[in-house]
Amino acid sequence: MKLHSDFRSDKMGKKNCIWLGLLASIVIITGVYFFFLKHAGIMKHREGPNEMTRFNITVSPNGDGDFRTISEAIQAAPSRSLAPFFIRVFSGVYNEIVAVPQDKVNLVLVGDGAEVTREIGRA
């Protein structure tokens, strides 16, 4: 029995339509996901801090901040945080070796600049 050529092309058309539908669904779901992440504040740190940024912790070597060392501030930060955790590092000389544990994620350290903030590590 010979199949009609329209029958075969109709099957291929349906198959292609299914794949296009799946692809469109993936694109839409991904876009909605990132839209909610951005508006929930989870991806806001990618834009960088500005004058409206609320710092969770401040560090100052002269004692004006919450901590005197950067390492103490990092240890005080929450582990596996889903939201960005902002640490403000004021100008000064920090005589320490700074290590960030693997479970401390989404940390954002903001300083006054390399000209006025120095981290001097001695092994």
TrEMBL record:
Protein name: Pectinesterase catalytic domain-containing protein
InterPro entries xref list: Pectin_lyas_fold, Pectin_lyase_fold/virulence, Pectinesterase_cat
GO biological process: cell wall modification; pectin catabolic process
Transmembrane segments: 18-37
Pfam families xref list: Pectinesterase
Keywords: Aspartyl esterase, Hydrolase, Membrane, Transmembrane, Transmembrane helix
Oxidoreductase in keyword set: no
Source species, domain of life: Eukaryota
Domain Pectinesterase catalytic per the UniProt entry, residue ranges: 56-118
PANTHER family: PECTINESTERASE
GO terms, molecular function: pectinesterase activity
Pathway: Glycan metabolism; pectin degradation; 2-dehydro-3-deoxy-D-gluconate from pectin: step 1/5
Keyword Signal: no
